[in-house]
Design a protein that fits this description.
The complex is a heterodimer of chains A (about 260) and B (about 425). Chain A has about 260 residues and is an alpha/beta fold. Chain A has a single domain (about 1-260), classed as Rossmann fold (3-Layer(aba) Sandwich). Chain A is built from ten helices and eight strands. Chain A is globular, with a radius of gyration of 17 Å. Chain B has two domains: about 1-395, Alpha-Beta Barrel (TIM Barrel), CATH 3.20.20; about 405-433, no CATH class. In chain B, about 45% of the residues lie in helices and about 10% in strands. Chain B has helices at about 20, 35-55, 75-85, 105-120, 135-140, 145-165, 200-210, 220-240, 260-280, 295-300, 310-315, 320-325, 335-345, 365-375, 380, 410-415, 420-430; strands at about 1-5, 60-65, 90-95, 125, 170, 175-180, 195-200, 215, 250-255, 330, 350-355. Chain B has an eight-stranded parallel barrel with strand order 1-2-3-4-7-8-9-11, surrounded by eight helices. In chain B, helix 4 links the parallel strand 3 (about 90-95) and strand 4 (about 125). Chain B is globular and about 60 Å long. Classes of the chains: A alpha/beta (about 260), B alpha/beta (about 425).
Chain lengths: ~260, ~425
């Protein structure tokens, strides 16, 4: 189900995917945003009531101009949780959404009951630098994002309508709009000082990574572990950065197992 | 009609197989391709050429800012402008310009431009480009989504720093300063003319119109491709009820003059090939960081001049194509006169930024082309736009007040000249209140 929510006297309007029933689970998407075909949300919906908001600047959500940095973004999510009357929830964040989920949990320790960071951005290792996805050619993206770039899934997710100029332009504008918003947290290096604040994260935390993640390698999971006291690392085989699309069953098992366990 | 002799200052010695071996001339070009001993020669050759253009009667000498770029060796054009102040007399110094969002605090630009204006006796044109995505986002790490906002704030700060009579405090989003108090202030009052170099962003035209600035379209693809941008600009100006004054539009054009059309091809074809096929080899991923262009500009379909599409269009172009597509205006003086007159009229352009050293072109050919243009082309185009007032050129000190460099003691011994006389010193003292 798709919902639309006004926040802060209309400063923000939030498009949100809501599915399932049970205890609330908040899913924060990555820099590319939700794709419109995100079956893992329904999978999680079998155990939880899943809220997957589009960050302002993504989808139909508006008000991106009021968010300049990760603090603004974290407070936006706090506000949204208050509005939804879920002062605390299980929070799952992927990539850029993992970075923001960690900020949400660090800025207010009561927000996350448990935290799952999936291939999360937010840190930087000089010896294992995160590649510059913003300048990566479209043809090279599947190899970066997926364990198996030749798979139909990888090909489909990044296919472009080269024969339809109008649709192509529309998609380019939308992609630009999303990445422009994401660049506020990720450009030119996706480190906005989280490691200084991460000691505050009190929730039990799962650092869930695709074993062959080439965007944010598994070394970053281990780095996160140094800063979040109650955390452990789990990897999923045959999965890259888009782990929940590539191995949906393993992904659901890992998340649900951790939260229920 | 006014002419600014514009230099990009390219590295002339990229290897033959550059395009096959490396992905980009800009941003991540290997550092070991640059030899500073060669660089020493090039900088000095290029300053010689600019000084020669001054002697030949061009109205302006143009320099611009690029970073980590093998066809533009001026991370700081202000340094080149400063070097020119001492050995040029006549031409304006057209610095197009400083990417003001990159300097922290931006009053640094206000200060350096004020220094240049004072040093040159009021010959400065102050250019404020947003800067390319390669320069600003990739080389200087600016967040693309906020670059333009930061640019506009920097602009407001610089103009205030020049104009305000007293010191003030500035509480911006990106810059906070308790004391803004410019020393020195510019010689031209309230400030040097502002030219806005652009690559076809729609918003820039509104900004230019709002402030009565001059807009300079700096493209390497000539008057035919540039026509679309010029028309877009004039449409905006017309809608806003502005005078369609040709001097409010600058335009860059590659021009090469020789004795005959055939000789022009023999002289310049290899150097054009070097420029278009080697120097403009930019990795498409660097052309347009997400958020650098606004959705309205993307939708307006004004594609950038670098990037995949642009380089595909250029693939394998030859001398004939460069001429036919209008990238280059070249040939005998008569040919260049005719084509350039048509081009300037079709664009309604009063300030030509003429690119005469391009790519690998050596000093002797650059000098020849420049001299032929100055003697046999420029005078024949001066009559264009005589009915319009050029409100965008600097207003310098009268000749009588212009300082001249004193002869060096070693030269003075040879020429029997003197260092500044005690009477000149006394004159300055008496004029200071």
């Amino acid at each position: 189900m798709k919902t639309h929510q006004k926040l802060c006297d209309g400063k923000f309007s939030v498009e949100m995917e809501v599915t399932g029933s049970g205890e609330p689970l908040l899913f924060l998407h990555g820099a590319g945003g939700l794709t419109g075909a995100d079956p893992f949300l329904e999978d999680l919906g079998r155990s939880f009531k899943v809220y997957a908001p589009h960050l302002p600047g993504y989808g139909e959500s508006t008000g991106g101009e009021h968010i300049d940095d990760v603090i603004d973004a974290a407070l936006f999510y706090h506000e949204l949780m208050d509005e939804l009357k879920i002062p605390s929830a299980y929070i799952v964040g992927h990539s850029m959404g993992g970075m923001l989920a960690a900020e949400v949990a660090a800025l207010d320790t009561r927000r996350a009951k448990k935290l799952v960071l999936v291939g999360a951005a937010g840190l930087w290792l000089d010896h294992d630098p995160i590649p510059d996805l913003f300048s990566t050619d479209l043809e090279e993206l599947p190899a970066m994002l997926f364990h198996d770039p030749k798979s139909p899934l990888a090909q489909m997710m990044l296919a472009l309508p080269w024969d339809n100029q109008e649709l192509l332009t529309a998609m380019y504008v939308e992609r630009t709009r999303r990445f422009a918003m994401g660049s506020k947290f990720l450009w030119p290096i996706p480190d906005r000082g989280l490691k200084k604040r991460a000691y505050r994260i009190a929730a039990p935390t799962l650092l869930l990574w695709g074993e062959s993640d080439k965007v944010i390698p598994v070394s970053y999971a281990r780095e996160y572990q140094k800063y979040i006291r109650n955390s452990r690392v789990q990897t999923i085989k045959q999965a890259g950065h888009m782990v929940m699309y590539e191995q949906p069953a393993e992904f659901e098992k890992a998340v649900t197992g951790f939260i229920k366990g | 009609m006014k002419f600014t002799w514009f230099h990009l200052m390219p590295y002339r010695y990229l290897p033959e197989d550059f395009k096959q071996k490396y992905r980009s001339v800009w941003v991540d070009i290997p550092r070991d391709l640059y030899d500073p001993r060669v660089g020493h020669r090039l900088y000095n050759d290029y300053l010689d050429q600019l000084e020669f253009a001054d002697q030949m009667g061009f109205d302006g000498l143009g320099v611009n800012e690029h970073h980590q770029n093998a066809y533009g060796l001026m991370p700081s054009p202000n340094i080149m402008a400063a070097a020119m102040t001492r050995r040029t007399r006549n031409a304006n110094l057209v610095v197009l310009g400083n990417s003001i969002a990159l300097y922290n605090p931006p009053v640094r630009v206000a200060e350096e431009f004020a220094m240049l204006d004072v040093l040159s006796g009021g010959r400065l044109v102050a250019g404020f480009p947003v800067g390319t995505s390669m320069d600003t986002n990739f080389c200087y790490g600016e967040v693309p989504a906020t670059l333009r906002e930061k640019y506009f704030e920097a602009h407001d700060l610089i103009i205030r720093a020049w104009k305000e009579k007293e010191r003030f405090s500035f509480n911006g989003k990106f810059t906070k300063l308790r004391y803004v108090n410019l020393w020195p202030k510019p010689l031209q009052q309230p400030h040097p003319p502002v030219w806005i170099p652009g690559g076809g962003s729609v918003e820039t035209w509104d900004f230019v119109a709002e402030h009565d600035y001059q807009y300079s379209f700096l493209s390497y693809f000539g008057y035919m491709a540039g026509k679309k941008v010029a028309d877009g600009y004039w449409n905006v100006m017309a809608k806003k009820g502005k005078e369609l004054n040709p001097y409010s539009l600058g335009f860059a054009q590659v021009v090469a003059v020789s004795e005959t059309d055939e000789q022009a091809e023999r002289d310049y074809a290899p150097h054009m090939d070097y420029f278009y096929n080697r120097c403009l080899h930019v990795y498409p991923g660097f052309a347009d960081a997400p958020g650098y262009r606004t959705p309205s500009t993307i939708k307006a379909g004004l594609l950038g001049q670098v990037g995949k599409q642009a380089s595909l269009i250029r693939e394998g172009l030859t001398w004939k194509d460069f001429l036919n597509e209008g990238y280059v205006i070249a040939g005998s003086p008569a040919t260049v006169r005719d084509r350039l007159r048509d081009a300037l009229k079709s664009l309604n352009c009063g300030h030509l930024m003429i690119l005469q050293q391009i790519g690998s072109m050596p000093p002797d050919l650059t000098r020849k082309s420049t001299e032929l243009f100055a003697r046999e082309v420029m005078p024949h185009l001066r009559d264009l736009w005589t009915g319009f007032e050029d409100k965008w050129s600097p207003k310098r000190l009268p000749a009588s007040e212009m300082a001249k460099p004193a002869p060096l003691p070693s030269d003075a011994a040879k020429t029997n000249g003197k260092a500044r006389t005690s009477s000149a010193e006394a004159e300055i003292r008496s004029s200071v209140k």
